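Let's do one together. I've listed all components of the complex below, 828 residues spread over two lines.
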Amino acid sequence: MIEPLVSPRPIAPSQPVDARRSGREELALYAGSIALAAIVKRSGTPLFVLDPDRIAERFAYFGELLPFARLRYALAALPHPAVIRTIAAAGGGFDVVSTGELAMLAHEEVPASAAVYSHPIKRPAAIAAAAAAGVRLFVADNPAEVRKFLGVDASVRLLIRVHFDGDGASFGVDAAHAMNLARFAVNNGIRVAGFSVHVDADRMSPRRLEQVLRETLRLIDEGNARWRLGADTLDLGGGLPAEHEAGDARLRALAAAAARVLEPRAPALTVLAALGRCVAAPAMLLATRVVGQATRDGAVWHYLDDGMHGSFAGLRDAASAPAMFSLRELLEPGDVPPPALYPCTVAGASTDGLDVIARDLPLPSLGIDDVLLCPNLGAYSLVLASNFEAVRRTRVHVLHSRRAAQRSGAVDAL
Amino acid sequence: MIEPLVSPRPIAPSQPVDARRSGREELALYAGSIALAAIVKRSGTPLFVLDPDRIAERFAYFGELLPFARLRYALAALPHPAVIRTIAAAGGGFDVVSTGELAMLAHEEVPASAAVYSHPIKRPAAIAAAAAAGVRLFVADNPAEVRKFLGVDASVRLLIRVHFDGDGASFGVDAAHAMNLARFAVNNGIRVAGFSVHVDADRMSPRRLEQVLRETLRLIDEGNARWRLGADTLDLGGGLPAEHEAGDARLRALAAAAARVLEPRAPALTVLAALGRCVAAPAMLLATRVVGQATRDGAVWHYLDDGMHGSFAGLRDAASAPAMFSLRELLEPGDVPPPALYPCTVAGASTDGLDVIARDLPLPSLGIDDVLLCPNLGAYSLVLASNFEAVRRTRVHVLHSRRAAQRSGAVDAL
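Okay, and this is what the predicted structure of the assembly comes out as:
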């Protein structure tokens, strides 16, 4: 009498399913090492599990990859106190874009001198407050913004943000006008530290990065020789890729390109690099639960207790389905073969018809109350969530750092 | 030396500019009546200005339009205490989708019996809590969900949510299986109140609405005659259009179609209708300030102190530019001709390159610190905002109700 639950045929093993298998093994090992099942049982769902050690490891990895650069953590990706403390303990600097982010640093007793204020557009009151707190490096990209620094503390310096391929871009002065803007600042008694250029990991090839960095260096050199800018800093900006599998091939190629241009200039040149997504993403996973199931037009739908208005909000821009594993499949002994996978629609917690997380996602057989785990969800997840439909944002469970005892150190003042 | 600010040619008067002119006159009158300039001066920006009288007016208007229906306000659009109090005072019911929304009603001392819990997917704990609080009407659309009502208070009744054109829809049992689902409930001792169908204002013609309502009535009649459902309720769901200009032609046509089918059945049939966007949208305007300006690729950019991660978050789905007026142009005496308009790019407060609110929007000449006003921003704005980049959500200034003294009344228990 009731429409039977359709039993779709399992997905045949294929490339993406093989990739899922290795991801599953990695996650199963990790879940065991942090006793994830017990955490979820104790704290319920939805739940983020944040691992400060992964922040530290990832930050150290970038230190090896970019030994010529002073690394800053860009708070926007995941401005969590535990992350701030971990970066500070590792000697990292910070990249902030708002008064609120500066307040978070102050709350963790990180000196403002460790931060670059990188938002190119600021209210004068925000500049005054940041300068008074001790920020010494700001970013600007247009004359109206440079004028806001007239009369600000004379030890403050500007990085001029430049773009080289920026048709329709929201920020950056085009390279042809960058020198004019730097000269405008200096002629008005505002100091220029150098130039800032953003790596757009999605679009920039290593070869193009090399060109762009050479052109930025040329701006610094010409500015110093011809216009007495006194520039000593090149800011690589943010935007490095987040992937951390397969040897980070793309990331390594970008880093090598930067090294070819910038290492020969050390130590006379200060190179800055902001890390956001690439440090935060692998440090947090989401545990979410199946709370409802239905068969619609022959497709199996799983409804979760989190969604596109919550912890998956970052997917709206990324347009790619997240990896999902059931806690139950991870708890199987290692010698049990992987479960059969079925194509499913996974929907979020709200009544919004657009709150669909993924369609045709391969998942094992699931029941109501099964817990799903989504790794690599540390960046642009929590921070983009709203309280839509009066649902609270997902809580964060912070793992005890297994390394904290070994770490100490001052914060790198930029 | 500095790149000159481009002076684009004013936009020639045309149809959209004429529409802007009438909108400007209406807003200027309204701004004068509520002393908007003084509010903005006192409270700063960004600021929402919420007018409970507009909620009451709009709710009363729908009462005239749908005299055969009991109206519920769907909290999801704008779950503000002042809105809840206004609807309750007008005798309206409520449509809730979460434990959090029920708590907001309780906080305003609205009895839970005035609410329909319309989310088709719920955790058993949410059902138990809502039933214990006094909710008597719930929505379900699949067998797994109906089963969750086994053992719940016997006075609780279900609305079966149906869809008639729902390929790929996230909710609703297709019409061919709706009777089976209702019988499954009744056979298990769970009472069925009737059927629920959502008006999709963007896609549904009045003619199609009429068909859909006739089919829903047929489900009720056949269910009662053949399967002893005991159904007495047809739920129109939400989704009515929000426009309120030009006599609401589309809205009136939909209401007339519903009346043709449903009025002949009064008073033996309880008709419910949920109002969200259409009540909330016109009741709130946003005041936001120009904090930065730049010329990029020949286009003038205005950067605001609010944006797509804040109060404009609802635009992400709507994909239409909001109307924007400068406070300065509204304060001009009525006999001053409208200002020349220029095409501008309007960008938000974050460093996200996707945070562009509108391109080629016709705006008068603006300077830094000019305040822009965006009317009709009451629905799906505040509720979709995040705290991205540690920026607080926009505050809400609630106008004193000029009508409150005349209003009183009990809440309509559904």
